[in-house]
Every structure is written in structure tokens, then in C-alpha cells.
Known about the structure:
Blueprint: E1 3-7, H1 12-23, E2 27-32, H2 41-49, E3 56-58, H3 64-73, E4 78-81, H4 88-93, H5 95-115, E5 120-126, H6 149-166, E6 172-178, E7 180-182, H7 201-210, E8 216-219, E9 231-232, E10 234-236, H8 237-254, E11 257-262, E12 268-269, H9 270-281, E13 287-290, H10 305-311, H11 319-334
Parallel strand pairs: 1-2, 1-4, 2-3, 4-5, 5-6, 6-11, 7-10, 8-13
Antiparallel strand pairs: 9-12
Helix pairs in contact: 1-2, 1-8, 3-5, 5-6, 7-11, 9-11
Amino acid sequence: MTRVLLTGGAGYIGSHTVVALIERGHEVVILDNFANAQRDVPARLERLTGCANIPVIEADIRDTGAVRAALAAHPVEAVIHFAALKAVGESEADPLLYYDMNIIGTIRLLQAMQAQNVRRIVFSSSATVYGQSDSSPIPEDAPTRVQNIYGRTKLVMEDLISDLARTGKLQAAANLRYFNPVGAHPSAMIGETPRGVPNNLMPYVTQVATGERPHLNVFGNDYDTPDGTGVRDYIHVVDLARAHALALEHICAHDVALTVNLGTGTGISVLELVRAFERATGREIPLNIAPRRPGDVASYYANPEMAARVFGWQAALDVNDMCRDSWAWQARRAGINDI
């Protein structure tokens, strides 16, 4: 059993990872500033897991003193670091905001960890660090050619962690480069709840299905892909959460540093995902073709073989599961019962 602090632990991926960790017998502490998380998530996690009184600290990772105090009050053996801003378009519009939150925030977190002698970390990175790859599937040793500010901050965050591991300041570290998380817990008790207009595809699709939005904007249909729309490697968030637990267990057992892709290894276009959602839910999704977004790339999907080889992980859920669980979550939030 490992006791672990999750920064951003009330967020979308963080909350699902809380469930995965508790299911595997670990203890969790949540640290979140609730800028992008609902305040009732910890209570829902307690009901979902049957684990009462999960420690929750409301703090910003840029506040080193607050993070140190949290680590002193709740001694842990490792940190899983989710807390970050994550919208490509927003990062291009406000680079300094992203440098401050993502890079400075990670430095402050690492300083607090060092002060409290917490020397193991699993980091929530992103496949956007690859940028426009030469080919897919993309292996971990592919060149990193970031094409947007968000991706650049993730790469710098990786480098900070890797450098501390290389110099012995961290005992173990895992940089997890994951592709496009979608879906929700099959209980429909936790899922993605974006504030304002969703930046990610699936929550936008589900909001169109509920009638909250009139149509889905497809940003670009002139990419060099089979149907002209962007191709991504969509991964169910439950699979992704399980990968975090397995990576944590691996680095704690072996005290190693690694960088690993997390994806299904299959590319799905925007239009393919929309059609799969329509089949899974029986609801039509009106489309509006819009211009490409700054910083977006045409196609990428993972070579996930290293995760399988190193810590025995591979995706178990497919696009139909992703669509079904996303819709169940959104329909429950919208009070729709005919699912």
C-alpha cells in the first residue's frame, strides 16, 4: 500500500485515478484549487469508493508553503501531479498564464516535495509534446516538436522532473504521455465537467446531444487524413486511471525513471467518433465545419507497447465504451432518463 498525494485530484482524470488507487488498496490525499473541478467531487468519490473522510486540501500548487503544509500534515510516499491548465487555444492566447501555472507551479511543487523529502512522482504529461510527428504510431523516442504553448509547458515540466531524477533529487519518476482522454466512470458518478465552452471533443458532443448546444464545431476538414478531420488516439479515462496506478506501483517497487505513452494505438477521426457516438446513443449530432484552430496538428496516435512491456498496462475499453459512458454521465447531469 502506498499513500499518495494527487494534485488536481478532484479534476477529471485525477478523480478517476483516486478511484483506481483506492480499488487497488492505496491511500489518497487530494490537493486541488477547484478552479476546474466541482466542489462536491470528493463527496461523490467517498460514496463511489466507500472510503470515508478522504483528506482534501484546497490549495494552489504555486503556493509552496501550502503544499509543504499539506505534505507535513499528510505524509505521503509519492505524488501524482495532474494540476495544470490544458487548453491548446487558451495557451496560444495567454502564454504567460500557462507558463505561470504549469511550469512555475511544477517548480513550486517540486520544491515542496524536496523540502518534505517526498522523492517519487508520476506526472500527467501529454502527447502534444510530439507535435507533428513524422508518422504514427508514435513511439516514446520520437522527436519532440511542440507546436503550441500548452505542449511546450508539458515538455518543460517533463524535463524538470527528468533532470531531478537524473541528478538524484528524485528517487523515482514516471512521465506519462497520454493521448486524448474521454469517457466517464461507468457509475456515471464522476466525469468531465468543463467550465464554459468545452475545449475537448467528447464533452462538446455530449452537450450537443442534450440540446445544450445547437451543433458540434468541427475545426478543419482539410487535414491530410482519410476524411479530412483531425485523427486522435482516444483513450477511456478508466483505462488511463488504471495506468497511473500501475505506473505508481512500478516506480515505487523499482525506483526507476521512465517516460511512457498511454494510448490505444488506434487513430480515430473526429467524424468517426461522432458517428460512433450516434450509434451508441441513437442521437444525431449536427455538425458545423469551422476553420482550423491555431496550434492543432493533423494526426497522432500512440505506440503503447512500452506501457505493456514495463508495467503490464494496455487499454481494455473501446470507442463504444467511451461513447456510452460519456453519454450516461452527461445525460445524468442533464436529467435525461431515456438512455
